[in-house]
Amino acid sequence: xxxxxxxxxxxxNTKQELITANIKLLIEQLEAGHSEALTNYLTAMSRFHxxxxxxxxxxxRQMPTATRxxxxxxxxxxxxxxxxxxxxxxxxxxIVGVRxxxxxxxxxxxxxxxxxxxxxxxxxxxxxxxxTNGVELPEMERVAGDPGENIERLTAFLNSKGIAVSYSEKIxxxxxxxxxxxxxxxxxxxxxxxxxxxxxxxxxxxxxxxxRRTATTKTARxxxxxxxxxxxxxxxxxVNGSASADYIQLYKGNASLLAESLxxxxxTASVILAAxxxxxADEVTDEELAEVAA
Length: 294
Description:
By secondary structure, the protein is of the alpha+beta class. The chain has helices at residues 15-31, 36-45, 53-62, 72-77, 104-108, 150-160, 191-207, 210-213, 218-235, 243-250, 255-260, 262-275, 286-293; strands at 69-70, 80-82, 89-100, 114-128, 132-134, 164-167, 176-178, 182-185.
């Protein structure tokens, strides 16, 4: 992949030019703001309540497979209905009341007349998405295309660096996890998504070792890893659309933050692309050709 053959003189001709062009494209997407897919996704997610630690444990105890839960009417507002006979997951909901103040300040300022106070808790019931039916919830755009042999090539490269790659359903709903010397991928993804996730986690492994990990923020690390996935994915012919920009913005990343990490993103993408180059066949000597002919 040191030289990229194209028929259009305006297209990049070298690996470095390709990396630069793809980073520029990603920056332009980030500067353009949220895509329609991300906007719809965030709007839908905002309807889901953030549960207390105690309720999270209760949900996990009653339905270990639950992935996204909400009350009956929240599901209705999202265009989905709870299946007939579905057993609700019991949680504790706060009972909030209003205490009226009758002091001098309250008499002068109407905003200080009432005070919200916790009166206690009551049982409430929520349902997992698997217990509902109806319209599909909005999702962010996904990577598409055929990565060819690049999953196997990248896996072999990572193994040669002492980084093991495995598949585990236990990491759900995460698509991939980087553990420092080990990568776990969620099985069942398309090959395009598997490759993109693998590149993202490889980016973490190559970029965010102990000393640099402590010197960067979660937002910066996710921005860098996803930028590497975008650049490498585009270089091997995957269709990314707004998937990477959506992911970065979901982690509060932006074009300015990406620009600050340009050098390390370019270097890491270059290393991975070099590892994906097919092995060069050994040249056949005249003596070998003679032996074959004989």
